[in-house]
Amino acid sequence: MNTAASPPVAGSPPGTTPVGVVVIGRNEGDRLLACLRSVCAPGRQVVYVDSGSTDGSVERSRDLGADVVALDLRQPFTAARARNAGFRRLLELQPEAGYVFFVDGDCEVDGRWLETATRFLDEHPDMAVACGRRRERHPERSVYNLLCDLEWDTPVGEARACGGDAVMRVSALQQVQGYRSDLICGEEPELCIRLRQAGWRIWRLPAQMTLHDAAMLHFGQWWTRTRRTGYAYAQGTALHGAPPERHWVRESRRAWLMGLVVPLATTLLCIVMGPWALLLLCIYPLQFIRLGLRGPRAPRERWWRAAALVAGKFPEMLGQLKFLLDRLTRRQARLIEYK
User: Which residues, other chains included, contact 273 with Cβ-Cβ below 8 Å and sequence gap of 6+?
Assistant: First the structure.
């Protein structure tokens, strides 16, 4: 087991190890205020890291009692960079903190979550990360919000990775030197790989953690977000695709196969065989049916999820292409924002 993990001080009740909060955001408006109100409390250190907001987020955050870090506008913004900056500032203000809770500024935190998570980590010193259930605030407003809610519904128990909202052990995060600041997406799974390689464990609790507000109401937003997912798959594969991790190798291959290889092969075969080659495109409706019939959810949720998984291979493939172009041209990756 990792020797860097240390149990709580003898005699201290579970859940009393000091925990600080790092919130990151950019132009989140009222969503940010709801987030800060849900975590700001007497005796709790909260750091808000702003990535160039123009909606008054910095001033309003200070009014609510958060310490504010405004990132240097001359450097590219990434969520990973923001979290690292917030973590450093938190330890300056609260060097005794044993845990840090990272949360996105478009999330409202459940009032019982921090106590639940810190109690769990106090009782399990081999755990580096505790995360819970993130839910979408308004899944009824659009099918795209609904798809986010389905995406957040991951199995409880030991996990390979966490999302953007998670309570982490300070000593574990320091040991692996935090997030990779150059990643524009997929930074949490990449961090979790390094934590697991160092001997730590990650756990998802059956507890409500946050309400997320994707505010994703249009097809273009979903397309852009899914293209970012494809970029993350490609970047993750480049970093940790070798055995035994094989990080996102399967997801990347599926994006290339369904998003490019099948359409390209169909086009070429049509030249040779004629219209009969179009039968190859039946792979898409067949895959849609297979995915739609699978799982315990309500039919509407299953079929929408199946449609998104099949159609999503095209923007994912474009995200893969963007990563390759950035790598070949040595171009600095830029955020792919859907809001």
Answer: none
